Amino acid sequence: MQIEQLIIQTLNAKNRVQIPGWGAFYLVEKEARWDAATNTAFPRGKYVAFNPARSSIENTLLPTVMRTLGGSMEIAESWIRRKVNQWQTTLDSGSVLMLSGLGSFRKNGMFQPERENQFDANSFGFTAVMMHRISEPSALESKVVASLKMVAEQRENGLSSWRKAAVAAAITALISLGIYQSDITPQAMAGWFTPTPAAQEALDNFESINSETVAPSESVTPINATNVEENQVSLTPVKADSKKYYIVVGSFKMESNALTLAEELQAEGHEVKVLPGSLMKVGLGGFESRDQAKSALAGIKAEVNSYAWIYAY
């Protein structure tokens, strides 16, 4: 059995476990919170923390190891000492020490817990949730663009196609204006379905299509312009937020790794943003122009990651 599993087992039982020669892991109760830097919501629960103090002998891991190995205290102490030495060797080599289900240690001894893992049995399985910005056109914009595209495609197919396009455009105009044909009187619905002058004109145009004789050479341009312009339907896409330029210092497949790095950089005083995509990118800054990002790039390469690069989002 891995030592991480023994630590988690003891934490669940006692809320604290002392690792001889290393320090103590313990549980901290936290309320539900929102991290604006990473756009992540965290539920209420118990989260793991670490204290590097090594002198305490209370709630040590020794009894759990003795019970698991079925050996004496000396055997358990030797087994734990060997694990601790392996951890220290990993840190001395400059690598990050990852403890599954608990968190990670840096060379400076700083502990970063796994933010999604919590030990509150009453949390009902709630976990951290990261929000993503979604950009999509409005329902009205989608309907109008789709109808105009259909009209443009139908114009090349002669008189019968023109009639189909005219019917489609008239129906779209009626729907967008909120007109609904029914037996309900306007008085009964407090005027909800009372046609506006522009709507009545669109309805008259629709009813006159079957009775009107149109020569094949006539232009089809006049049928749509009045309805759309009189009701002032905007065909311009909704303007999205202007792009900003970030200096990416890490990209990860696993969201938890991106959040871990983002929290560390935020603790060091950096302005951090986690950028979604096929890879979760950890970006610094949020510059208005590429030139500003280029000016800051050299410093970030020297301080954080020599392979940092600029990304527009």
Please tell me about this protein's structure:
The protein has 3 domains: 3-130, no CATH class; 139-230, no CATH class; 245-312, Alpha-Beta Plaits, CATH 3.30.70.1070. It is an alpha+beta fold and 313 residues long. Residues 179-194, 210-221 and 225-240 have low confidence and may be disordered. The strands form 4 sheets. A 4-stranded antiparallel β-sheet has the order 11-12-10-13. Strands 1-2-5 form a 3-stranded antiparallel β-sheet, with helices on one face. Helix content is 39%, strand content 19%. The two termini are 45 Å apart. It has 9 helices and 13 strands.
The secondary-structure element order is HEEEEEHHEEEEHHHHEHEEHE
Structurally, how many domains make up the residues? 3
Tell me the overall shape.
elongated
As an assembly, this protein is: single chain
What is the CA-atom radius of gyration, in angstroms? Answer: 33 Å
- Order of neighbouring strands in the sheet with most strands: 11-12-10-13
Task: Note the gap between the termini.
Answer: 45 Å
Quantity of strands, as a count? 13
Low-confidence stretches: 179-194, 210-221, 225-240
Count of DSSP helices? 9
Determine the mean pLDDT: 74
Secondary-structure-based class equals alpha+beta
Largest sheet: 4 strands, antiparallel
Q: Per DSSP, what share of the residues sits in E-state strands of 2 or more residues?
A: 15-25%
Roughly what percent helix? Answer: 25-40%
